[in-house]
């Protein structure tokens, strides 16, 4: 459905598109320097940076459609990785399609939908004792830069799984990962200014 209409569906999609377009115009023309303030301490930063790069090349509407498509396809892919990590048939991931067009899609929660892909991927990688700390931290960083709330949920889910983890080395690795997810989110929440 994303590519069947001129404009993508989602209540918040026009806002995301407008913010990316405004930022691109601001950085290229500097005409908004007295009118707007760019906040780089946002939990949606990666979505906006990737969206801006795509929009610069292909236009804002295509950028939005590509990001939505990435979240849809990525969710099925990450679900397959998670199923496989837990020893289940990865083909069952096809059923995740049934949940893709729910509330968060309809409302256009673009950063959240992209962060779900990273959450599922991180949970799958955490399950593997062979996963390198560098890889886990990279996925955690991408998650933090995509959606802070989802990063918090990821940290809590990994904590719950770690409490029953029998291997000490994996527990210690997971505790470091939990701190990497939760501390920046708590600091951002404590230091962020909201409103005027």
Write the layout of secondary structure elements.
Elements: H1 13-29, H2 45-58, H3 60-85, H4 103-106, H5 110-127, H6 133-146, H7 148-163, H8 168-191
Helix pairs in contact: 1-2, 1-3, 2-3, 3-5, 5-6, 5-7, 6-7, 6-8, 7-8
At a glance:
With 196 residues, the chain is mostly helical. The protein is built from 8 helices and no strands.
Describe it for me?
With 196 residues, the chain is mostly helical. 68% of the residues lie in helices and 0% in strands. The chain contains eight helices and no strands. The longest helix is centred in the middle third of the chain and has 26 residues, at 60-85. The mean pLDDT is 91.
Count all strands and give the number.
0
Give the end-to-end Cα distance, rounded to a whole number of Å: 38 Å
How would you classify the quaternary structure?
Answer: single chain
Structural class comes to mainly alpha
Spans where pLDDT lies below 50 across 5 or more residues: none
* Amount of beta strand: under 5%
Biggest pleated-sheet summary: none
Tell me, briefly, the overall form. globular
Gyration radius, rounded:
18 Å
Average pLDDT? 91
Total DSSP helices = 8
Helix proportion: 55-70%
Order of helices and strands: HHHHHHHH
């Amino acid at each position: 459905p994303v590519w069947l209409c001129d404009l993508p569906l989602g209540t918040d999609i026009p806002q995301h598109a407008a913010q990316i377009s405004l930022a691109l115009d601001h950085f290229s023309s500097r005409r908004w320097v007295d009118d707007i303030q760019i906040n780089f301490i946002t939990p949606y930063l990666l979505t906006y940076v990737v969206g801006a790069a795509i929009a610069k090349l292909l236009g804002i509407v295509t950028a939005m459609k590509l990001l939505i498509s990435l979240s849809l396809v990525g969710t099925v892919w990450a679900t397959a990785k998670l199923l496989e990590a837990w020893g289940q048939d990865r083909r069952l991931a096809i059923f995740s399609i049934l949940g893709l067009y729910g509330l968060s899609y309809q409302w256009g929660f673009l950063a959240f939908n992209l962060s779900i892909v990273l959450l599922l991927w991180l949970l799958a990688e955490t399950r593997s004792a062979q996963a390198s700390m560098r890889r886990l931290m990279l996925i955690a960083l991408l998650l933090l830069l995509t959606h802070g709330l989802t990063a918090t949920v990821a940290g809590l889910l990994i904590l719950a799984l770690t409490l029953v983890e029998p291997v000490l080395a994996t527990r210690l690795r997971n505790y470091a990962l939990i701190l990497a997810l939760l501390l920046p989110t708590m600091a951002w929440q404590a230091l962020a200014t909201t409103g005027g």
